[in-house]
Fold:
Amino acid sequence: MKNDVVPVQIRGILPANSGCALFVGNDQKVFVINVEPQMGAIIGMFLRQTPKERPLTHDLINRIFQGFGISVERVVITDLKNSTYFARLILQQQNELHTARKIVEVDARPSDCLAIAAAQKKPIFVASDLFEQVEDMSEVLSRMNEAGGETD
Structure:
């Protein structure tokens, strides 16, 4: 799978009319995934490593993973259908003797995948064919940075 994906990062977060715009990309191209305002705030907290009084849902998920010896390998944004992005969370579990490992791919919302990746500092990828088709928003991100918008 790694040959048909492009590495990306969360390049910025901007509050929008009905949610939050996550700028995702690399030096080649940046595209936007719109998420709920709360998810944008949570992802921003993970990127900034903001201390939290109580564990958030994604913290709980991470602790459950740890308890079962599961690690997040990577996140892959896989598709765009009817203005909705799709993503996969790639997990690995070692057996008790550390002699074998099991890889599991889980369908998940991109916002949840990005929150988990930000919390655990795990790599984010985009399917190559999807990366080619998304609109480049690098100029918007650049203007946002010049205007002093929130970036992470």
